[in-house]
Specification:
Helicase, Ruva Protein, domain 3; 2 domains; 7-stranded mixed β-sheet; 3-stranded mixed β-sheet
Length: about 300
Amino acid sequence: MHTTSADNTSSRYPRLRELCQRHNIRFKKGLGQNLLLDDNINAIMVNAAELDADDGVIEVGAGLGALTRRMVEKAGHILSVEIDASFMPCLEEQFGDRKNVRLFRGDILNHALEDLVAEYLPDAKRLKMVSNLPYYITTPVLFHFLESAVHFDRLVVMTQLEVGERLTAAVNSANYGALAIAARLYAETDIVHRVPASCFLPKPKVDSCIVRFRCRREPALPGADAAYTMRVVRAAFGKRRKTLRNTLTGGVLGLTREQALEALDRVDIEAGRRPQTLDLSEFVALANAIRAIKTNPQNNS
């Protein structure tokens, strides 16, 4: 969901409803655009980000600038990214004269973050991302940042409640899966605040939540190959209800049944377990074992 707020945070700015009328802005369902009626939600997001003058912040989906307003007095530098050209005059009106705000029209997924940081946030001592993300691109945008060549200290995003619960799910819970494991590889995650659907106009069919990522500078576990581990994780969860001896055989990993059993035996994981019972450390160990077997098949027992 791409959100904006209806409330005013400062006499410096016109009300957002007035901005909509002045710039003839119409919210586009296809881009997941909704009006956030409670500006306190933006305040909660900014507080969770713990912004200060050392921070360079990227905001994805700036919309009418409601969240930007909350950040502009706290962050040292802000790069507000917006894909919809109809919002740009509104953003220029509010932030065009602010030295610590740069506006960029484009699709964040089409740009390397290290290039954007080098051009727009060169003086930032610490990088963060704070965004009311369009829900239809939540996961790709998150991993665009988590897997970036430049380190982001913290990500704070609003997303669908269901996605937030999947990102933060505990091992062996109903929502635990590839998304939770991927998030654990890169960050410590938690849900900061639940946001009911009634806070938006038009009212969506689902509730939302604010998720915070405290990103790791080093891998979660020594020796973890994030990309290969996730390849194994996705293969394992491809058939969630089946046991590991079956989910690891064939498919994208190309393992024979004997190789799958050998890998599981090497790391003392019972072949009859299901993928949702494995924690991150077990998946990392399993991935390393599978890679060793695939690299040196002649050494298999």
